[in-house]
Each structure stands twice: as structure tokens, then as C-alpha cells.
From TrEMBL:
Any Pfam family hit: DAO
PROSITE patterns (alphabetical): RHODANESE_3
Localization in the cell: Cytoplasm
Protein name stated in the entry: Sarcosine oxidase subunit beta
Annotated Gene3D superfamilies: D-Amino Acid Oxidase, subunit A, domain 2, FAD/NAD(P)-binding domain
Amino acid sequence: MQRYSGFGLAKHALSHNENWQRMWRNPTPKKKYDVIIVGGGGHGLATAYYLAKEHGITNVAVIEKGWLGGGNTARNTTIVRSNYLWDEAAELYEHAMKLWEGLSQDLNYNVMFSQRGVLNLGHTLQDMRDIQRRVNANRLNGIDGEVLDTQQVKEICPVLDCSPNTRYPVLGASWQPRGGVARHDAVAWGFARGADALGVDLIQQTEVIGMRIEDGQILGVETTRGFIAAETVGCVAAGNSGVLARMAGIKLPLESHPLQALVSEPIKPVLDTVVMSNHVHGYCSQSDKGDLVIGAGIDGYNGYGQRGSYPTIEHTLQAIVEMFPTFSRVRMNRQWGGIVDTCPDACPILSATPVKGLFFNCGWGTGGFKATPGSGNVFAWTLAKGYAHPIAAPFSIDRFVSGKLIDEHGAAGVAH
Ligand code: FAD
Ligand code: PYC
């Protein structure tokens, strides 16, 4: 990584960034690739990176209709944790957690992964029973987790209102110390730079508008810049996955919903961990530049507009003020939305399809940022070999026929 002294930085600022190197090329699409990835978010870029790095498959294009990382990757609230209930999901998210722990070194790019711990609050006896169960399951899977009482929560997060006088007093929490946050756009840029350096073509401002399929085999994709051939295509398009699946005549069990977030004006450091409450229904962390990063649940209706509605913002901020009364005078700076693709069991789809060579990585709903390196890693393996990586296998679309669903609504909780 290039490093600049203070003088070097000033010189570059005054030279209007003259001689700065591009992070990645801007290639003209080739007529044919070995693999096409549709969607240049974190998951698509990670897939391309691991295809090149771990499988030596470098004749790869990532086709992105907008700009790299401009979808949910740039719109999420960056919470990373692996405290999922069922073995299959826990293994998938813990695989990602282990990759997060070495990611900045691997990419030689600082993704600002900060293991500041994640608290999931309990406000009722049933919450506490669910927390106990999930922490036990996590520990049996070798994942760090503790059950805390009210006093221990207060010690970790003094700014949280833990008094008995609230509408839903805090009875305790689960605590995952290895959880935390990472800088979302740096994750996209790090994977993009790494993939490009290994020979992957990153093709922006190019939309996939159709699929060419003959005798049950994918032959390539129709794009706004013409047809591009490949006999292996991985669709990693988050909220637009249902639209892409329809182009191939496939109906996926997905709903697309807006999910919103807000950031406040920057304030002095007050919150050095991540706090989530399924029950009061809000979550908050503080970014390194001081903003409070806030969110809650999806807007109830389906849609593809990346915004969301006012009642959800109001509901979210009511929850935040209830948990953190001292935040009531902080002003909100910005609000935005992304389109999340939710599955009936709140788990993702990592799967082959009835069309030979066509694969989908989607359904991450409100919680896929934390999975980014793990998802890309197992999906690359799946595309390279043509059959599912053992960690990905339980997340096949066949589960919606066999009934072998993996219900993670509890772990996905706060945002669903
Ligand atoms: P994206 O980043 O959305 O990438 C998909 C890309 O596909 C987009 O760039 C899109 O432009 C492109 N595309 C779509 N259709 C086409 C087409 N036809 N042709 C070409 N390109 C196409 N997860 C967490 O783990 N922790 C959180 O704290 C968290 N908070 C969230 C908060 C909000 C407000 C939102 C919206 C989401 C949150 N998530 C969180 C979920 C997380 O953001 C997503 O699950 C994850 O980022 C999905 O990554 P992706 O690469 O699959 O999707
Ligand atoms: O999955 O941890 C999560 C999450 C938090 C906010 C949105 N998703």
C-alpha cells in the first residue's frame, strides 16, 4: 500500500491528484469470459477476488449496472457478528468472521475492521431464554458469546438506560466480543483492487437486461453494451435478484423491501460498542468520525425504490431515544435506504439453479454485510467446481422444496 507523509499528502492535494494511480482499470468488455459475476457489490467483488486468488480463474468479468459497492454494500450499517443459532448458519457466518480477522492483511487494504463487541439486549424473560439458548449454541460451535446481566451491560455501555423505570427494562444481553464493525466502502474497494490486480475485468455502468439460455445451459448475458458470453454466470444482485432470476425463467422465494438507516451529526465518543435491541427495535453504534449510526426494521411493503417511508424513521428514533435518552437532542444528518432481498427463513441462497452454469448468491436480506468475505469465498469455490462448497450446501434453493429451512429470524431479528 502506498503511504504518504503529511508533506506528501499536501503536495498531492495541491497537484489536484495528478499522477495518482487508478485503483482498478476501466476495461472494455471482452466478447467472452470463463465466468461472469452480475453485481459489483461486496459479495460479487469478493467472489471474483477469491475465484482469481484461490482457484486461478482470472478470465472473469464483474458486471455492475451502477458503480462498484453502490448498492447495499455502501448503504448498510456495517455490523459484523457470527452469533447465529443453527449450526449451518453459524458455520457460514463464523467462516466469514475468521476471514474478516485477516482481511486487511490479505487485501493489503485497511478495511477498518473494529472488534468492539456486539450487545443483543433482552427485555423480557422470553428474550433472556432465547439469548441463553443462542449463546449456548454458539459456544458449542466454538463461537465466542456470553450472557450478561443488567449490571454487566451497564458496565460495557454506560450511556444505555439500564434503569428499571423504562417501558421495557434491560434484563441482560448476549455479548459477542469478536463482533463489531468494518468500513463498508473500503471492503468493496479492497476486494475490487485485489480482483483487478489478479486480472478480473470490473465493468461498471453496464446493466444485465437478459440471459441467453439454450438447451438448459447459460450461454451469456445481454447487457446495455451488447451480448457477453460465459458458460458460468453467478448472480449476486441483492434486492434485484428476483428480477434477474425472472430473466432466466426462475422464480426465487424472495421479497424485496426497503431497509433504512440514519446517521447523526458527529459527536464526541460516547459509544464504543454496538447495541441492538430486537424488542424495543432499534440499534446503534458510533462511527470513527463520531456519527451515531442508527437503524431498525424493513419498511413493510415491497418495492425497488432505495428510500423508505417516514413512519419507519419515526419508529426507529423513538426506540433509540428510549434506549439512549441522552441522544434526544442530537440532530440527524442523513437518512437513506437500500433494497434487501429477504427469504422466508431469513437465510441466504447460495445455489445452482435448474439452468446449467447459472448460480445465485442472494437472499441475505438485512444481514449480509457481515458475511461478505465468507460468502464470496464459498461462492467462488462453488462456481469453480460446479457444485456447492460444503458450507454453502445447506443454503441451496432445494430447501424450499424439501422443507429443510434454517430459521434464523431470531438472529436476524432487529432489522427484519
Ligand atoms: P449489493 O451491495 O446491493 O450489490 C448488488 C449489486 O448488484 C448492486 O451494486 C447493483 O447495482 C447490482 N445489480 C443489480 N441488478 C443488476 C443488473 N441487472 N445488472 C448489473 N448489476 C446489477 N448487513 C449486515 O451484516 N450488517 C448490517 O449492519 C447491515 N445493515 C444494513 C443496513 C441497511 C440500511 C441496508 C440496506 C442493509 C444492511 N445490511 C446489513 C445488509 C447488507 O447491506 C447486504 O446484505 C449486503 O451488503 C449485500 O451485499 P451484496 O454485494 O450482495 O449486494
Ligand atoms: O445483521 O447485524 C445485522 C444487522 C444489523 C442491522 C442490520 N442488520
